[in-house]
Amino acid sequence: MFSRILSFVTLAAVANAYWTFGGTPVLVQTRLDSIVSPGGIGTHVHAITGASGFSNTYDYDQLIQSNCTNIPIQQDKSNYWMPQLYHRDKDTGAFVAMPTGFNIYYLPRPGPKNEPIKAFPKGFRLPTPPTPDKLTVGTADDGPPEASPLPTQQCSGGLRAQVFFPSCWDGVNLDSPDHKSHVAYPIQAFNGGDCPDTHPVHLISLFYEMTVAVNEFEYHGNGTWVFANGDTTGFGLHADFQNGWDVDLLQSAIDQCSGESGNLLDCAPLAAVDECYCDNALKNGATAALLPWYECANRCAGNDFEICGGGSKLTLMTHHAAAHPDQPSRRAVRFERELV
């Protein structure tokens, strides 16, 4: 009896666990869409975050070779994107891309049958077509309640556009001609039901919040805010994902993460990610100053919106036979990231 109760508690903890890549900046704003318009130019501009290797084509083996990503976990070389939101000037009609960021949630939602949750396979593409009941747009503060259409008043704390992805896969196709038939939403509830027989593989659920600083611009009524696809209502909101995860690490996080706070440090497989750097001295301006990973950001050269290094820990070790004269021998120094 005790073992059954313990197993139930453990399963419940994992089911309620999740993690978040919060406050993720935009990597690039560009008219590319490697899923819908591979090899060409997309129909509208997207705000894209994730791996630096994003291009108009998607190849998993190439994407995971990206130099860096602005996702805190460097073993996630995926890309995440949504249509850019613009401000239209009342007098000139000119469009300005408003400052944008992302909160990306990974949510194990097994449904009533407690179906096993699987990681995204290599090469997997996951779109969300405009589906009003699966998306909401609302204020980023305590203003009017969220709804499907864009708010009809200024949002003093900014705007938050949300999309929940389908989490059931047919188990065969990494994409489909219409970019949606290979996946489906769960049956009872789009954010927590069981998978249909046609799409029996239950994947980890993805949920995006795209935050936009609309409060930095004048609001002049309907038409002030325009998504890049021409949508002024919010009903055309959609999102896309292309997988660049270390799939084994993602599955370990799904199986073992027990934190219910969304904090990566509460998810053991992700918090334990380390890098190894071999040398006899600190270089490139690195110091032994200790900083938590979430306060540390190495900006990539030539792109202020891209962060290299993420939240991976850097462990420096010296050996007495090759130790630098200024450093004690036989010691291991741990700090969060070298600053360059």
UniProtKB/TrEMBL annotation:
<feature type="region of interest" description="Disordered">
    <location>
        <begin position="128"/>
        <end position="154"/>
    </location>
</feature>
<feature type="domain" description="DUF1996">
    <location>
        <begin position="33"/>
        <end position="245"/>
    </location>
</feature>
<keyword id="KW-0732">Signal</keyword>
<feature type="signal peptide">
    <location>
        <begin position="1"/>
        <end position="17"/>
    </location>
</feature>
<protein>
    <recommendedName>
        <fullName>DUF1996 domain-containing protein</fullName>
    </recommendedName>
</protein>
<dbReference type="InterPro" id="IPR018535">
    <property type="entry name" value="DUF1996"/>
</dbReference>
<dbReference type="Pfam" id="PF09362">
    <property type="entry name" value="DUF1996"/>
</dbReference>
